[in-house]
Amino acid sequence: MSDNLLLSVENVKKYFSVKKKWREQQKYIKAVDGVTFHVVEGETLGIVGESGSGKSTVAKLILQLLTPSEGTISFKGKNIAQLSSSEGKEVKKNIQTVFQDPYSSLNPRMRAKDIVTEPLLIHQKLSKKEREAIALQLLEEVGLSREHLNRYPHEFSGGQRQRLSIARAISLKPDLIVCDEAVSALDVSIQAQILNLLKQLQRDHGIAFIFIAHGLPAVKHISHRIAIMYAGKIVEVADREEMFTSPKHPYTKALIDSIPTSDPFQRKERELIKGEPPSVIDRPPGCPFHTRCPYAEEICRSKEPKLEEVSKGNSFACHFPLNIN
Ligand code: ADP
Ligand code: MG
Fold first, then answer.
1. Whose CA is nearest to atom 16 of ligand 1?
2. Ligand 2: centre distance to CA 14 (Å)
3. Residues 2-24: pLDDT tens digits?
4. Range name among 21-35, 45-59, 105-119, 277-291 with the lowest pLDDT average
């Protein structure tokens, strides 16, 4: 991991307009509402938040499948909204993705060798022989082998299919791979194998990852830093150790406390987070978490806390943070 900035996301918002009735005021779903974070070369940033908190929208904005309503996303120092077409092509090549559902994201009528090498064809011409050789290399890189070259997606298990998606994602030698719930659908033991594969690829090729999940356990072992999202906002971002040993935001603490432990003597009363997140259309003023926060006071209902940095790379947005001496 180096200190070179790869991706920076600054105050990015994505609002979707809600279908309205005649004369009704236009309302917006504030899916992502002023998000700021960065990724350095070769690191893994985990993004965690419950369903609907805006994680996939963030992923789609970075992958340029959506354009921000506000804010800027820069890759290697350049605003991706202002690139020439050749620069834009280069950035798209450098940011790849692995989605959650390997059933719908892989073409069922294509053989493994064609699936993993398809992205290359946009950028270069390959003979049949060259294509097959590269396919084999890619399959081996992700723990598959020659016997898998001619198989179709339905002939693979869920874990193998995710390996295939990863092989496809690395075919263009990207600097960054966005994994949106990439292991959420897999059994825990298979999840661990895929996470190990991603770590291996990071060690071998210095690839940076944005690793999105709805719970902390999935990102705990793979992330160098973790960002916690709540209702379209980042409420805390910190180094992994710092986050687990001294969470600042009550929501982060609640997420940590809700991780089941296997040791019965360690098991404490699980403090589950009660209630529902606020509506993303008519969010009440103040802190987005105040409706569920056990520590909320008057100011939390009226004034939104800004994300502030406590130490290098560690920030939180809370009026009454925990673990601050
Ligand atoms: P997550 O991945 O954390 O579950 P999403 O980014 O998918 O969250 O969604 C965040 C919010 O934005 C949700 O309320 C979702 O319904 C809404 N949303 C996402 N995409 C669209 C869209 N294309 N149009 C309207 N609303 C959307
Ligand atoms: Mg999602």
1. 52
2. 14
3. 689 999 999 999 999 998 888 88
4. 277-291
pLDDT for residue 104 is more than 80: no
Task: Give CB contacts under 8 A, 24+ apart, made by 57-62.
Answer: 57/14, 57/31, 57/32, 58/9, 58/12, 58/32, 58/212, 58/229, 59/97, 59/178, 59/180, 59/210, 59/212, 61/9, 61/12, 61/14, 61/32, 62/7, 62/9, 62/95, 62/178, 62/210
Which ligand is nearest the CA of 58, by number?
A: 1
Ligand 1: which atom is nearest the Cα of residue 14?
Answer: 12
Sorted by sequence, the CB contacts under 8 Å of residue 131 that are 6+ apart come out as: 113, 114, 117, 120
Helix (H) or strand (E) holding 40: strand 28-40
pLDDT of amino acid 313: 83
Report pTM: 0.94
Q: Whose CA is nearest to atom 6 of ligand 1?
A: 54
Kindly report, residue by residue over 247-294, the tens digit of the pLDDT. 999 999 999 998 877 666 655 545 557 778 888 787 889 999 999 999
| Ligand 1 contact via 252 beta carbon (within 6 Å) | no
Query: Using CA atoms, how far apart are residues 161 and 276, in angstroms rounded to an integer?
Result: 34
User: How far does the centroid of ligand 1 lie from the alpha carbon of residue 152, in Å?
Assistant: 31
Is the CB–ligand 1 distance for residue 16 below 6 Å?
yes
The count of other CB atoms within 10 Å of the CB of residue 56 is 21
Nearest to 182 by CA among 163, 167, 154, 207: 163
